[in-house]
Amino acid sequence: MRITALAGGIGGARFIRGLRHHLDQRGNDTGSADGPHEITVIGNTGDDITLFGLRVCPDLDSLLYTLGGGAHEEQGWGRAEESYRVQDELLAYGAQPDWFRLGDLDLATHIVRSQWLGQGHTLSAVTARLAQRWGLPDQGIRLLPMTDHPVETHVVLSGEEPRAVHFQEWWVRMRAAEPAERFVVAGMDRAAAAPGVLEAIRSADVVLLPPSNPVVSIGIILGVPGVRDSLRGTAAPVVGVSPLIGGAPVRGHADTCLATIGVEATTGAVAGLYADFLDGWLVDPADATTTVRGVRTAAHDGPLLMTSVAAAADIAGAALDLALSLGRS
Ligand code: FO1
């Protein structure tokens, strides 16, 4: 089975880890000879930022570290057992920014990525090399950046004199508390889907949308030329998992992002953003009454919270089962 997923950072990463777990479990439980499952993950690169001359790709790195067993689980970003000696020294020099923490182990990723990009390799090629180090191919997981072009989400702040800041400054420094007028993806006008991205959607047996932020993660990937059309045109069923429970985001600031684009923070309204290509929508039991025109909504049999690998595997399994039961409508 070829499964393609669109993913943001930690929510996407935990979902894919759960999916991998579920597939392994399913193979063992049924003893079935399904053959190896291939998972292609299309990662958001709108969060990317250049700091201290280094290219940082937070969502791709969350996927690499989580799937490779090196993530800081409690924090939800960065490496486990991290230290901050390099950044402390940078701060002693008065180097900025001081609001974005870059750990020593994490810095190694950004250094090597920047070196390889500087040598002329594409972000896809660099990501494939990083994925090798984290053992993704051995798990049957292929990680593709949505595009090889440098794109960055910027946030236009509301105010008498509107000004734009990088998404990370708004998200991390301002904690998304500064009222925003809109999101702009710098570089998207010149971007093209990375090699394999559109093909992975078109040729998939199942397409899944993890419970990633619908605006600044999934929404950004959908803006890459050809992605939305490929989702509309694929023969695969497309099933999403709600990132909201009872109107509140599971983590992050999805509600604030939705308000910025004028969409109600309800699971039905989020599904509405995908309604032109979505076949199935998995919601929390608290949202069981949700209906979305043209989309089969199913309530999970437990909370839609990925509190453990087993819980994430259950959720991913339910999304997959919903997709397999639906086929393409
Ligand atoms: N998030 C924070 O809240 N504070 C940080 O200092 C921070 C540093 C950081 C460094 C590398 C990285 O890959 C991610 C980092 N994040 C940090 C997470 C990141 O800003 C966001 O959570 C994602 O971009 C949103 O998906």
How many beta strands in the DSSP annotation? 14
What fold name stands as the CATH topology?
Answer: Rossmann fold
* Radius of gyration (Å): 19 Å
Instruction: Tell me the domain tally.
Output: 1
What oligomeric state do these chains adopt? Answer: single chain
Question: Major beta sheet, specifics?
Answer: 7 strands, parallel
What is the name of the CATH class? Alpha Beta
Structural class of the helix and strand makeup? Answer: alpha/beta
Number of helices: 12
**What spatial form do the alpha-carbon principal axes imply?**
globular
N to C succession of SSEs: EHEEEHHHHEEEHEHEHHEEEHHEEH
Strand order of the largest sheet: 5-2-1-9-10-13-14
Q: What features would you describe in this structure?
A:
The chain is of the alpha/beta class. It has a single domain (2-150, 189-324), classed as Rossmann fold (3-Layer(aba) Sandwich). The protein contains 12 helices and 14 strands. The strands form 4 sheets. A 7-stranded parallel β-sheet has the order 5-2-1-9-10-13-14. It is globular and about 60 Å long. It starts with a strand and ends with a helix. Bound molecules: ligand FO1. Ligand FO1 is lined by residues 8-9, 47, 56, 58-59, 61, 77-78, 100-102, 106, 168, 171-172. The site of ligand FO1 has 16 residues, from helix 2 and helix 6.
